[in-house]
Structure formats: C-alpha cells, structure tokens
Amino acid sequence: MGVSYYTVAARLGDPDAQQDLAFCIANGKGCKKDRKEAAKWYRAAVAQGVSDVGLAWIYKEKYQ
C-alpha cells in the first residue's frame, strides 16, 4: 500500500516520495525489485535537490 501512495506523490513531483519510492523499488520492498526503475526515481529526486551521496550507481549506463 505504501508503494502506491509513494507512486502517486512521486508522480506529482514530491522529491521525498521519489526517493522513498526509489528505495522500495531498488530493494523490493512491497514491489518487484527493479534497479533501472529505481535509478529513474532517484535521478528525479536528485534533480530537485535531494543528495545523491551513495547513489553513484544511478548514473551508470545500464540504469539509464
């Protein structure tokens, strides 16, 4: 249920929801694990000013 709420808020542009949704997707918490989709949401959050410390992997070509 949390993933669905994060998805709605993330699509509306909330950077915290984008980061939380990306965490859930990257780790398979409440949904299927998908690192490419997680990277997309992490990049969206970073574009709005969220720190990307520890997220260097989201910029690798295979996650574009």
From TrEMBL:
A Pfam family it matches: Sel1
SUPFAM superfamilies per the UniProt record, alphabetical: HCP-like
Matches recorded under SMART domains: SEL1
Highest taxon in the source lineage: Eukaryota
Entries under InterPro entries matching the protein: Mitotic_Regulator (IPR052945), Sel1-like (IPR006597), TPR-like_helical_dom_sf (IPR011990)
This protein's name: Uncharacterized protein
Organism the protein comes from: Hohenbuehelia grisea
